[in-house]
Structures are given as C-alpha cells and as structure tokens.
Design a protein that fits this description.
alpha+beta, binds zinc ion, single chain, globular, eight-stranded mixed beta sheet
Length: 646
C-alpha cells in the first residue's frame, strides 16, 4: 500500500506504486489532461515515474511556474533535435529553461545562425513536436555516457559527465534524440503547440571568456498558438515602452561614457519631472509630520563599519577615498540611514518628543557589475526618497499605518491601481537568527498585520522572509503589462538603534531604545521614473507630465494670437509651449502626438475672432472650440481627479 499526501492534506491509498499521472487520473480526467509536471517529497519527478514509497505529491499544470519550467525545458530538447537535424556536426552543450522560455548553447561546426534561419528551426521543431513522442528517462553508467559523447566528438558533454558521479547519470530519449539530462519533463512532445525562436547571442562555454564562444539560441513555447500570439504582442508593447527608448525620445535623461556607466544624467525636462515628483512627496510628507534633513555624499569609513554596511558593501563596492592625511578614509554613501542615526544622536530626546521623522532625497552610490547595469533600473548612483522614523514601541502601530497611508496616496496619484502587500515575518523555528527582543518582534509583526488589515490591503504573510533586524511590508505593484515590481518597502529595524546606541528618556526617567522605521514610497527616483515610463508608456498623469499643452497656430498670421494664448496659459500655471514653425498643422499634430503632449490647442481665423482655442486630446479626441478659462477648468478638474487628496 502506498500513501500519497496531496497539498490540501488529503491522503490517497494505492495498491501498487502509482505514477503522478495515475494519481491525477484518480482525482479527475480533467486534471490528468492538464498535469505536465510533478514534485514528490520536494524533488521534481517525471509524470510517469512510479512512486515507490509514501510521500507528498504536488501536481503542476501550465498555470504553475514549475509547469512552465518543465514545459520549456522539454521544448529545449525538441529544439536541440531540430538543430541537430538542420546543422549536421553541431555540438550541443547545455539548454535550461529560464524565466521566459529557454535557451540552448551550441557549437556550430561552421557558419552561423541568424534571424533568417529562425522560421526553418521553428518549423522543424514543430514537426518533431507533432510526433507526440514520449520523454523517457534512463540511467546510464559513466563509461557508457562518456562513450556515447566521445563517439560524437562532443567534448562539452564529456566534460559535464566527467564531473558527475557514476550512478547519478541519466539520459532522456524522445523520438530519435538523446540528451544528457536530470529530468523534469512534460509527458510528451505533442503538448507543445507553438514554438518561437526569439534571438541568438554569443555565450562562452561555462561563461568563461577564455573558452570557446558558443551560439546561444533563445526560444519560447506554448500549449496554444493563441498564447504565443499574445506573448509576442506583449513583447512588442514592452519594446515600445522600454524606458531607455522613451527616456531618449522624451528627452528626460541620458548616459555618457565619459561620465561613467550607470551614472544617469538628467536633462532639463527629466530634472523638472523629478522636481515635481519630489515636491509632490515633500508636500505630503510635511503634512504627515516629516522634517527634511540634508547629509553629505560621503562619510568616514568608521561610520559604515558601525552601521554594518561596510561588512555588507565594503569589499565588492567602490573603494575608500583617501585624503592627503594618512589613515583617513571616506566612503561614498551606500545608505542614508547611518547619517540619519547621527542626526538623531545630535541631542537627547524624551518620549514626549517622539516620533522624529527625518526625510531626505539622499543620493547613494553602490558598485554594480557593468553587466548588471540596465537603464535607470540598475545604476551606480541614485537618489532615494528616504526617511527614517524614530519612535517608541507604543507608537509603532500608528506610525506604520501612517506610512501605509502615504504609500497608498503615492500609488493612487500615479495611476497604480493593481497591487498587493507582502508582510515578511520571522521564521519562528529559527529564533536565534534575529536581533531584538521576542516580545518586540511579536508586537511589531502584529502591528504590521493589523495595519495591513485596517487599511484594507490585499496582503500575504511570508514566514521567514523578514531581515534579521526586523519585519517589513512591501508593496508588489503590477504594471500595465502585467509585470510585478517591488515598491515602497516599509522596514522595521531593531539593529541600527542598537549599533548607534540611540536612546530616549522614558516616562520612568530611564533610557530606552527607540525603534527605527525605514521607508521610501518611490524606492529611488531613477527606478520609479523608469517604472512610471513603462507603466504609462510616457503618458504621465497630467499633473506630472513635462508639457501639458502645445499651441499650434494654423499659419503665420495667427502667431500673435497664439503668443497671447500661451501667456494666458502660463498665467494660469499650465505648462505649455508653442510650435510656430512654418509647417502644416497636420505635421505639428503628428509630432505633438509622438511627444505625448496631452492637449493640442489649434488656433486659426475663427478662434482669433471668437477668442477661443480648438482643443484636440492626445490620441485624437476632438473637444471643439472653447475659451481659455474653460480649458483651464478642464485641466484643473482632470488633475484633481488623479491627484488624490492627502
Ligand atoms: Zn531534459
Ligand atoms: Zn534606511
């Protein structure tokens, strides 16, 4: 008798060893049709592997991440077979599943693979897939495995096998194809209905540039053609919305090799946008009782040794700055927190004066490998919308709720509607991992969960995900393309108050440790603006966008009137410009559309007579001829509808 425990806790008995597929069939035919992968006692198994002992089984379908991994891994075998058939003499190396699809690294005997070959590879692979070949795993002795690949002259697989222990080596067969493989396949090739080769790139064997350069073939596959079509549309849209492309087109920021990689330069329009974002948050923070502080871009090495950041960032980061004075070392600031701790330490506090909330748009520097740099999302210098709250344990509850309110205000005003909260708490089986008294942790975790509940957040609790120094809450924001971004972490910290010996005088006249909360609703200005660009496709909310309107005179004759219109708009605090080039209105409209300007104000003969403007919205909607006052009201109303109150 074999006892199989399912994720819902139910137990099923089987007379003899069932395969995961047998278990699926015993639940429902529908499930059996959809199961493509399984995990038994925590290990990935084939759906046909007989389960020889009692244990817990998880069945996966295409909807699960594990299902997709098995699907894409299995497709890489099919594509490898297609490549072998199309390019005789090709040597296969490794071909894993990745986040979105799979790749296979191959050594081509001659020539190269380019985009014009993709279709031929896809067709061949699909032809193989349609054969509905089963994936069959088998154990092979080390000597047989070595002989198999030595006969093929494949030194890469030989090298891989040489590093494996005899008795652990398995091959996977399907159709006429065999590959060295640890397993984790879908039942048969026929489930793969759509295959797309996405790109090729160079890759060194084992990632070492002293080794042979291989060709990496990237691809993706789906169980339905429709899903591939949708994926390709999404890719197209993501390309259009790439913040690096939009940032250039909208003249927001640039990079210079001379200045250095990963160090963004903000152009006037981008700088103005940042400034508006900063003012927006500063205004809300002032209402919420924050005080602005300013700290330098460098600090003595000792400061970061005290904070523990040197141990974390020191070795692999920017090296210390030396001065003419020997033994003096400074570091570029990797975090603002140590500086703010010393601001708190500048004078003694009584419990009556807490909480203190210090905010700073603080620029920090962290060394990232050049291969890791990416537009504004991975940079070496960035500005955090940082703040640190120092409070008593009794105040934590209220402070946490207030920070959530502020974060919700920020997300709402910037058009992020779809988000969840993730609460990270301790692993109670591992209490020694954490600093700070257990009852403080209990209180803090409860405070965060209560706050999430009370604010009506859609939240999940992750046990064991808390940092060693405190629990936290993260907002996981879904952008317009359905991608998840982590934003606005609220972190409780028992560690830095200890390290910096922060105190306050309690009502008992004794000294106590305050609790510190780190929070940054945007995270960093750079990453946030990148996210905002990709979320909105450059169509920022009206209150934030660089130019709200553009005046387009129909001809030279109306330039004077157009200038007057512009002046009135400026007087009404509407950000506008004028396009008085000697071009057709049609061309001016097309360019204004490309520059994502929300309102085009066309002025011609009739407008001048009636003192109106003809308003066309970005995207084409015609609002007709209205007065400037009417237009100002329209702008104000639209801004008020997006900019939530705080
Ligand atoms: Zn495999
Ligand atoms: Zn901090």
């Amino acid at each position: 008798m074999i006892k199989i425990t399912l994720p819902d806790g139910s137990i099923k008995d089987f007379e003899k060893s069932p395969s995961p597929m047998d278990v699926a069939k015993s639940i429902s035919e529908g499930l059996a049709r959809n199961v493509i992968s399984a995990k038994f006692n925590g290990t990935t198994v084939e759906t046909v592997t007989p389960l020889q002992m009692d244990g817990s089984l998880v069945l996966y379908t295409w909807k699960d991440k594990e299902g997709k991994t098995a699907f894409w891994h299995s497709t890489s075998h099919i594509v490898a077979q297609a490549l072998e058939e199309l390019y005789p003499g090709i040597k296969l190396t490794i071909g894993p599943a990745i986040d979105n699809g799979f790749y296979y690294d191959v050594d081509l005997p001659e020539g190269s693979i380019s985009e014009k070959d993709f279709q031929k590879i896809e067709q061949k692979a699909l032809e193989i897939a349609r054969g509905k070949h089963d994936y069959k795993m088998r154990s092979v002795s080390k000597s047989d495995a070595l002989r198999f690949y030595k006969d093929q002259g494949n030194e890469y697989k030989v090298e891989l096998i040489e590093n494996l222990d005899d008795g652990t080596i398995t091959f996977c067969d399907h159709d006429t194809f065999t590959d060295l493989c640890r397993g984790g396949h879908i039942p048969n090739t026929g489930i793969v209905k759509a295959i797309k080769i996405l790109s090729v790139a160079g890759a060194y064997w084992r990632g070492d540039e002293n080794n042979t350069q291989l060709t990496r073939v990237y691809g993706i596959s789906f169980p339905k053609q429709k899903e591939l079509t949708e994926y390709l549309q999404l890719l197209e849209e993501a390309k259009k919305r790439d913040h690096r492309k939009l940032g250039k087109e909208l003249e927001l920021f640039t990079f210079s090799q001379k200045v250095g990689q990963g160090l963004p330069l903000w152009l006037p329009k981008g700088a103005a946008l940042r400034e508006r974002l900063e003012q927006f948050l500063k205004k809300a923070q002032k209402k919420a009782g924050y005080e602005m502080v300013v700290t330098p871009h460098i600090g003595q090495k000792e400061l970061y040794v005290t904070s523990g950041h040197y141990a974390k960032y020191g070795e692999d980061s920017f090296q210390p700055i030396n001065t003419p004075k020997e033994d003096e070392e400074f570091l570029l600031k990797p975090m603002n927190c140590p500086h703010h701790c010393e601001i708190y330490n500048a004078r003694p506090f009584s419990y009556r004066e807490l909480p203190k909330r210090y905010a700073e748009f603080g620029t920090v520097y962290r060394y990232e490998q050049s291969g890791e740099l990416h537009g504004l999302t991975r940079v070496r210098g960035f500005t955090q919308d940082d703040a640190h709250i120092f409070c008593t344990p009794d105040q934590l509850d209220t402070e946490f709720k207030n920070v959530i309110d502020l974060s919700l205000y920020v997300l709402g005003s910037l058009g992020f509607e779809d988000f969840t909260a993730q609460v990270s708490i301790r692993d109670l089986n591992n209490p020694d991992k954490y600093i700070g008294a257990a009852d403080n942790w209990d209180k803090a975790e409860q405070a965060i969960i209560n706050a999430a509940k009370e604010k009506g957040l859609d939240y999940i609790i992750e046990s064991g995900e808390a940092a060693f120094y405190g629990p936290k809450l993260d907002f996981m924001v879904k952008d317009a393309l359905g991608r998840n971004w982590q934003l606005g972490t609220i972190q409780v910290d028992y560690n830095l108050p200890e390290r910096f010996d922060l105190t306050y005088k309690g009502s008992d006249n004794e000294l106590h440790r305050p609790i510190m909360i780190h929070r940054a609703p945007f995270g960093s200005m750079e990453r946030f603006i990148a996210l905002l660009l990709e979320h909105t496709g450059g169509n920022f909310p009206l209150w934030l966008i660089p130019e709200q309107a553009i005046v387009l005179p129909v001809s030279e004759k109306h330039e004077k009137y157009a200038e007057k219109v512009l002046k009135s708009l400026e007087n009404n605090e509407i950000r506008a410009l004028i396009d008085s080039r000697n071009e057709t209105v049609g061309k001016k409209i097309r360019e204004a559309e490309m520059n994502k300007i929300p309102f085009m104000l066309i002025v011609g003969e009739n407008n001048e007579k009636a003192k109106t403007i003809s308003v066309r919205k970005h995207g084409g909607e015609d609002l007709g001829a209205i007065t400037i006052d009417q237009f100002t009201n329209l702008v104000t109303n639209e801004i008020n509808s997006t900019l939530k109150s705080f």
